[in-house]
Design brief:
The structure holds 2 protein chains of 2 kinds. Chain A has 3 domains: about 90 residues, Orthogonal Bundle (DNA polymerase, domain 1); about 55 residues, Uridine Diphospho-n-acetylenolpyruvylglucosamine Reductase, domain 2 (2-Layer Sandwich), CATH 3.30.43; about 230 residues, CO dehydrogenase flavoprotein, C-terminal domain (Enolase-like, domain 1, 2-Layer Sandwich). In chain A, α10 links the parallel β8 and β9. Chain A contains 20 helices and 20 strands. Helix content of chain A is about 35%, strand content about 20%. The radius of gyration of chain A is 23 Å and the shape is globular. Chain A is of the alpha+beta class. By secondary structure, chain B is of the alpha+beta class. Chain B folds into 3 domains: about 160 residues, Aldehyde oxidase/xanthine dehydrogenase, molybdopterin binding domain (Aldehyde Oxidoreductase, domain 4), CATH 3.30.365; about 190 residues, 2-Layer Sandwich (Aldehyde Oxidoreductase, domain 4); about 325 residues, Aldehyde oxidase/xanthine dehydrogenase, molybdopterin binding domain (Aldehyde Oxidoreductase, domain 4, 2-Layer Sandwich). The two termini of chain B are about 50 Å apart. In chain B, the strands form 7 sheets. An 8-stranded mixed beta sheet of chain B has the order 3-5-1-12-9-10-11-20. In chain B, α9 packs parallel to α10, α10 runs parallel beside α18 and α18 packs parallel to α19. In chain B, β27 and β28 form a beta hairpin. The chains are: A alpha+beta, B alpha+beta. Chains A and B meet through α2, α3, α4, α5 and α6 of A and α1, α17 and α19 of B.
Amino acid sequence: MVRDTIRFWRNGQAVEVSGFHPRTTLLDYLRLQERRVDTKEGCAEGDCGACTVALGRLRGGRVHYEPINACILLLGQIDGAELVTVEDLSSTGDLHPVQSAMVAHHGSQCGFCTPGIVMSLFTLYHEGERPLTRESVNDALAGNLCRCTGYRPIVDAALQACSRHVGDSFSESREHTAQGLMSLADGRDVFIGDETCFFAAPASADSLAALYARHPDATLVAGCTDVGLWITKAMMEIEKVIWLGRVAGLDLIEDSSDRLGIGATVTHAEIHPSLARIDPDLGEIMRRFGSVQVRASGTVGGSIANGSPIGDLAPALIALGAALELRQGDGTRTLPLEDFFIAYRRQDRKPGEFVRRVSVPKLKAQEVFRAYKISKRFDEDISAVLGVFRFTLDGRRIAEARVAFGGMAGTPKRAAETERALIGLSLDEPSSWGEAMAAIAIDYQPLDDHRASSAYRATVARNLVFKALSETASGETQATRIIGRREALQAAE
Amino acid sequence: MNSPAKPTMDAESLRHVRQPVAHDSGIKHVQGSAQYIDDIREPEGTLHVAIGQSPKARGRLVSLDVSAVRAMPGVVAVLSAADIPGKNDVSPAFGDDPLFADTEISFLGQALFAVVATSRDAARRAVTKAVMDIEEEAPSITVEDALERGETVLPDYAYGRGDPNAAIAHAPRKLEGRFRVGGQEHFYLEGQIAMAIPGEDGDIHVYSSTQHPTEVQHVVARVLDIPDAYVTCETRRMGGGFGGKESQATQWAVTAALAARVTGRPCKLRLDRDDDFVLTGKRHDFRCDWQVGFDEDGRIQGYAVDLLARCGYSADLSSGVVDRAMFHADNAYWMPAVHIASKRLKTNTVSNTAFRGFGGPQGMLAIEHVMDQIAWATGRDPLDVRYVNFYRPGENVTPYGMEVEETDTLINLVRTLEETSNYRVRREEIAAFNASSPIMKRGLALTPVKFGISFTLTHMNQAGALVHVYQDGSVHLNHGGTEMGQGLYIKVAQVVAEEFGIAMERVRITATTTAKVPNTSPTAASSGSDLNGMAARVAAGAIKKRMIDYAAEAYGVPDEQIVFRDDRVFIGNDSVAFDELVKKCILARVSLSEAGHYKTPKITWDRAKATGRPFFYFAYGAACSEVIVDTLTGENRLLRADILHDVGRSLNPAIDIGQIEGGFVQGMGWLTTEELVFAKDGRLLTHAPSTYKIPVASDVPADFSVALYPNENREETIYRSKAVGEPPIMLANSVFCALADAVHAVDPSKPVPLNAPATPEAILRACESLRGRPMG
């Protein structure tokens, strides 16, 4: 019943690999074992995109391509997927349309980032919205750093190549690939290694619960966008890996009229549209979360379970009043998300316990939501401050407020004093907002770090209270935002 | 538009030169088949090297115990200072960069030893196991720390003209200030890497991702105590350099070579990205203390600036870098009385090094900031303040005594850009916008660039090339310049194909190697195509001359009736295929191989007396940038950029535009989001792309126009082109000045206290200061 290999699809056929160390990254497998060096290592932490490859997975019966940072993806995680690297694009001898466009537009200089950029454009070519806009090209490239060109020729190449009707060898063989991927989906547990050192990919929640109960010291991996760095940077001696990506049921999105249920292994990319429907600001937070590559791998459950003090999503979910569901063995429990975060990098998660689901209440008619991500760089950056507000309005007064910030404390944290001070404020009397703005200083004593100083964080947080109130009062964001204006986002919807 | 001197080249008669020929490796780049050093198939038994780093920034290494390192799986050797057969010095000039520190520890991360193991993973795991005892001292991290201790890496240097103190004192208006300019990490996408393969008799072949193969060769020989002739350094391409691989690729190549020497096996060293950040130098950050005196029009009467450069722990290239900051402290402006002083401060941080512009951008940004200060003080438009200060005939001698011969180019270029960018109209629109927008403020700036072209060390302005013509008419091209993405190889190939009148396909570009062209200068100072293009042309020209001599005699036709064109040679009324003539030449025992050499004329520079002509010519450009700033958060965005840039007569407009756009965006990163943060203990906190933010695609405006200014180099450069590598970096000064202009709208009665980089935090700090509520 248990399978001791991983199986993936490559160049039209199934490939089986076994006997690898659980820490083996996809990039190291390609470069050191297969000795295929077309994919480059730029940073080994999922930030530069030089190692981008495409993974094809079935979604609704159709092969769906996503770009992935191979440097922080474990080899085992490509089980069941189609793997495409840059040299596969021109294996027939002719350049792929995105490759031709890159050459024609002088889109490469030193060429080192180019394979990754080509792969990001390959996925845009297949999956990009049409008509294609410059903004969506920029989004597709947010996870690919280029230090030479200044991007202009790359974006032009993308606009030329990816605006057209799709027709490459991958679309021609889509049926065959889909059948191949279906043949790989056997529903069996995967276990490679022995009791001291293994890569496991259980296929059901019960298998997972049993395995994790037996090995509470194992490292749970969902997207691996954080654990990947424990391996490549911290050189942690991780010997037991349980990958959640094959667990049936953990990937469910339950979208009802008043709640959104997000299974632990739902990726940021998958949940993005549902969150954007809750509120455009939430969609914008998701658009700016990591990069396409990171959102394609990283999961909502992982980002919460991991307890990043910034966690660009958690403050938003807290402000919305989300609840977290955990499972241990056969038992489950539910708690408010804000209670899960105890202290810096310390969460209320017991040995052998795992995140099962996040349940997010949707906004009610009288509720107003505003979220602000403040970072050095708009795209592909971690926030210095993330401020999220949910106001319940009673006419032109604030009847209730939930405010949560990231980057202001060791954990994502609600602003209790600020919330209190907001209650009863009139949207029409800005002169009365001062107390609520000042309350931020009671709620938070932020730290200095490389992202921002304490003083900056405190000032911005205070100013964001003002901004959220101003925008709620006016109902407009044209005069208060550089990007992510709600008017434009709503028009695009 | 200006009318340059009579053109000496007819564009229409050129087949390759001036054409937008694609990068020679473009097709390989997009397929992932362009080979970088880590892609070379390793010889069997190749070992891997990792660097053992100091955990402290300053102190004495009392003991280093590597027994636990040796005991780790896969470890073959551990190398430290005691294993060095020759000199423990990898410095480019001043003898102060040890390969491995043995007693004195100078910065956090400094190499103390190296592990050689059977895999890179094994080496990286083992390297953390060393036990060391360090007698720690308080480190100097900041400019102020170094000033307090009075520690420098090189002597102070200053020059000037007239009596600026008196001029400033007597001027109708005067200002002074302290302006900080941040450093910059190169972030070449391909990190530092080298592979060394031992040969017979102690020979060693080093593949190094370096801008300076000759220096790698010489330093490997110095450290291994073998003659230069035993070492070959080869570089086919780098995945980016930007100056970061000019002197600082050497240490890793030398470490790999030492490991190969000790183990007798091929050894490879590829730094992890985070280690690369920590272990390699950056653009120098500066504190600029300035004083200026000017009249009511904003015309400068006296300027004094003290350029305080944070050099890190050793001299490295800081002599030239800070000199170049001084050479650009005037940018494009006449200063009747001027004093430019500098200090090369020693700090316990990684040794700062070359970075595109080589100090020039820092010196130039300071005077652009002063121009804005004058504008804020006088209430004049910042562009008008710049106009009244431009060099002009009769007021065209730089503070270092070099005459600016081309005074009309820059003024005409700026005037053109002022019109094409619609500067004046937009200035009014922006003022109107700002008047009605309390939170969002827009800013506009048009700034010029005048950048001196030549190495300021005169002897470095030379280059060699080697050209062979084979019997089938294919041509082997080699030269001392290196390819880091800037398109040097294709430009030089264009020159050679042009010379022979043959198709580009016939010219085989080959990897730079010290075995073919010796004693080269680094590919730096924007000089690559000026120098190597000329050297290759000299070589090809000499071969062509011998072919002409042969043909003239064999066909009885005068030289001037022999023309190389369209892969044929036209000889009087006759013509033969190029390869036919080649075959005939070989039969006639004509040599078809030539080593060409070129040295830049006219340049002289006496540093001690601060006189001469350090630059062959100047390259010019200007940029107009418009930004928007959120004055509640400091967030900002570049909305539009218009660039007009002078590359003389372009060798390859596609490549040149790529350099301009790429340089501008890189410069914008330097001045906005790229912030290096060192902790008090000397630890670099921004040591990865997760924390150090270079521009991404969305930072580049959709409204981005770049044009080449029609001009011809008045000097006899290769096809009258101008160098293009570095000058565009400084076009981004317009972004910084536009951000300051936007902040200025918060309270137009006050100067803007904004330093570089203008991060959202720096901008908000400035906004809050103008609002009179300083941010803690």
